[in-house]
Amino acid sequence: MTATANAVNVLSAEKLLDHWQGHRRLTRRMIEAFPEDKLFSFSVGGMRPFSEFVMEFLKMAEPIAKGVATGQWVNREDLGTPKTKAELLRLWDQDTVAINALWPTIPAHRFAEVDKAFGQWEGTGINTILYAIDNEIHHRGQGYAYLRALGIEPPQFYDRS
After folding, report:
1. Exposed, middle or buried by CB within 10 Å (0-12, 13-18, 19+), for 1?
2. Is residue 10 part of a domain?
């Protein structure tokens, strides 16, 4: 039997988007759970405040969706520096809309096509998307530790509804 005969499509593009947006919904609830002042200042062990992690996600998510869709990898320079939770959530919601709009434009072959994201990271479109998801999960875990250190019960990690 060849590798091709054993290939299994386990996740459609639509299901992948739903999975990613599920993680994004959970991260949004994490942002909401932080007290305004702690979102931009609190850290543990020299790590960055949660707002800086969120900005990292914002600098990656929409540009990755666009890069996989078009092959054009453009760094985001348009985000500014949000100073309030409301501004951060507004940017988050704009990104959600942008990702949802870009997703159906991704040609099926682009998920498997090797590209050099942002001129630095070579990999398939699917692996670049999975990296963005993994990175968000990783830093969201740090946010869980921050909220617990602040005495705040974080959202349930498994509830991505």
Report:
1. exposed
2. no
